[in-house]
Amino acid sequence: MSRHLPAFLIMTPMLGAFLSPLAVMLGRTARNAVLVLFSLATLVISLGIVSATMGGNVLVYVMGGESYTLTMPSGMAYPVRIMFEIDGFNALMILCVAAATFAGALFSVAYMDRFSGWKRYMSLYFMMATGALGMCATGDLFNFFVFVEVSSIASFGLVAFWRDKPEAIEASFKYMLVSQIAAMLLLIALGALYGKYNALNMAAIASMARGGTLDKIVLALFVIVLAFKCGAFPMHTWMPDAYAEAPAGVTCLLVTVSQASFYGLIRICFSIFPGVGGAVVPWILIVLGCASMFFGVMMAVVQHEIKRLMGYHSISQVGYMLMAMGVGLLAAGGAEGVYGFKAMTGGIFHMVNYSVYKALLFLCAGALYYATGTRDLDRMGGLVRSMPWTAGMFVIAAAAISGLPPFNGFISKWMIYESSFAVHPALTAIAMITSVLTLASFAKVFQAAFLGPAKAALSGVREVPCAMLAGMAALTLFILLLTLFPSWFTSRLFDNAAHALLNHQGYVSAVMGGV
Amino acid sequence: MTDSSVKAIAKVMDSVGDSAYVVVALIVLMALYAMLTQKNLLKVSIAISVMCSSVNMFLVLLGYRAGGNIPIHFLKGDESALMVLPTPQCLTLTAIVIGLATTALMLSLIVMLRKHYGTLDIDEIRRLRG
Amino acid sequence: MRPMSVVVTKVCDIFAWFMVVFGALIINNGHNTPGGGFQGGAVVATFLSFLLAAYGSRRVFAWVRENIFGFMACFGPLSFFVFGCLGFPHSFFFNSIAVPEGGQPISDWLPYAGTISLMDLSVGCGVVGALSMIILLMYKSIHMVETGEGMGGERGHDRFER
């Protein structure tokens, strides 16, 4: 049974998507049960996958047959089949996506209750989760493209879900333009690779790529496209709009979809084209990272609308991860392996942290919007008395994102500071300034929304329903676990993931068999 | 497909050479240019469709191998002829349908925008939003 | 949309069905030629747009029932899932080309392409339903912009005050 875990991972949310029109027809209880149970099942399966990959194992699953090649009568073997390849790094990303799916589903039960259109909402929600999980699990480049399209088409629909708001439609349109250009460029890159190597399997391409001119062009295309999709600085414009206008449960999942694109970028740089382009690629990542970090937080500080503010913070958080991975990639090519390894562990730790606390922050913002009916910080105030649970969880998430010492955000940021200092002190300085500005910005949010005198207009505000609190509590629990046992997580999961990324030969030979 | 028609296609493709790829690149650039300069949302969506088609053209071009036969088992005819691996054709078909779905969604969004703002001009929409 | 001239409607009467036949051919041969449910379904769905263009909206809307398309779009994916699970001792969906040389197919009642051809049929059903529904809904939305009727009935989605 455990052999089939990767297939179950994709099948569970897919079955949820197909069943949801029926479930909505059967009534409210059936609908909520399907939404919560299927996302819970996905989470359980992803935990199974994480434990299966823990000792450095690589799970390989071939769709439709035993081996991924098709042997012709003439003896030629073509790598044709769709396959999933999951190592320590993918497994962590899958866990993040599944956790966000579960939390967002719990939150949506109450949050979306007063709206119609549940059939579409649930189907698209599960399809988006399927797409994000597939992007993380797949070992085939064309399949990666298909999953990118599945998740992005579902998210266009969900961003524009409140179709009575012109801003939502506009945000969706903008997001669609950007991701369609990105998808077409991705397809060109895939086609070029196919034309050269006659294969679309990631491991097969990795075993054949030698860093010629075509490889460099393709790598450049991939970096552009996936930086588009994960919202790095010059290509970030869709991100705050889409994050702000989507329903909160969806935003929580959108964060992980952009994480899945980031995963694709890292996988392509580390496992498929390791060392192609020399030091140029890591420095591009580092520069993109610094720019996203700094400009993202600068744009966030001046915002007055809570979800847009958090959207701009996402850009700066993506910057941290880009910088950490750039440092890791720089060191992976050279001799200084120690700080490079630390940078990668820190970067992976930060990816997990980011998907968890950012999802929690967006859910808190959604709770505030649900309770007060506004997203404008100037019209909130004194909510700590009426919404104590939301306030408490917001404090935990805000402390984690701004890197206050006991929390998990501090640990991962500290690892990034230490390792980036070895490359250039200026990188650390930028990262620290960003961290201080993040703290300032979230202190402002907390002060504006929760402290101060209670506004007369908000006198009837009460705590949000239990289901929404449960969704937020699931993520808070995850943050507290990461905070309390960082060394266990680092030694068991993050180091394992970093090893899996650096072990390019292992990724290839798990499929190709000892090349 | 008969042997003579395979040869005829090979002859045409020989004379075309790599210039087919240049045409594809030109169409992609034209679409990108239109996307960046046009103000009308409908024209922008047309540009996206053109870009989809040009990428599909690129994939079909890649699928051509000199002297190869069509990858359809029961139509193959001549047993000695080489069959082309049908992966690029499958990619193209999938990409066409994905492009169709996206175009439909994009047109629907344009209808909604028109309903909200009463115009399709990007600048006008930005001005109305204020 | 107004109905077009008699010539067009007659030609439509004769030829529109060939689109369905061609689409069905693509769906049915998906397991050994390029094509399959997704692509064939898209061809079949053009039948409805052909009818809309030739006969005009009033007659077409009197003919078709959207619920049928909704049912197809719901039933297709579910049966896809069930057919996919049939291949399970091996993997999710099963493809007979995958049988190693000299191996035995998993079951004697499955068709020779494994579960792929069955899954093609169900995907075709789903895609026909979904794309036909998209065509009908998009057509209705044009009407909605012009006259403003057909809105309402949804909670929280229909404020158009600008």
Entry summary:
The complex is a heterotrimer of chains A (515), B (130) and C (162). Chain A is mostly helical and 515 residues long.
Provide key terms for this protein:
heterotrimer; B: 130 residues; mainly alpha; Helix Hairpins; 5 helices; 73% helix; C: 162 residues; flat
Overall mean pLDDT of chain A: 87
CATH class of chain B: Mainly Alpha
Structural class of chain B: mainly alpha
* Overall number of structural domains of chain B: 1
| Helical segment count of chain B | 5
Within the CATH hierarchy, at the fold level, what is the topology of chain B?
Helix Hairpins
CATH architecture of chain B: Orthogonal Bundle
Number of DSSP E strands of chain B: 0
First and last CA, distance of chain A: 29 Å
Strand neighbour order, sheet with most strands of chain A: 1-4
Beta-strand residue percentage of chain B: under 5%
Please describe what this structure looks like:
The complex is a heterotrimer of chains A (515), B (130) and C (162). Chain A has 19 helices and 4 strands. Chain A has 515 residues and is mostly helical. The radius of gyration of chain A is 22 Å and the shape is globular. In chain B, 73% of the residues lie in helices and 0% in strands. Chain B has helices spanning 3-16, 19-37, 41-63, 87-117, 122-129. With 162 residues, chain C is mostly helical. Chain C has one domain (6-98, 109-147). Helices cover 62% and strands 0% of the residues of chain C. In chain C, helix 2 (37-55) packs across helix 3 (57-63) and helix 4 packs antiparallel against helix 5. Chain C is flat and about 55 Å long. Chains in contact: A-B, A-C, B-C. At the A-C interface, helix 1 of A face helix 4 of C.
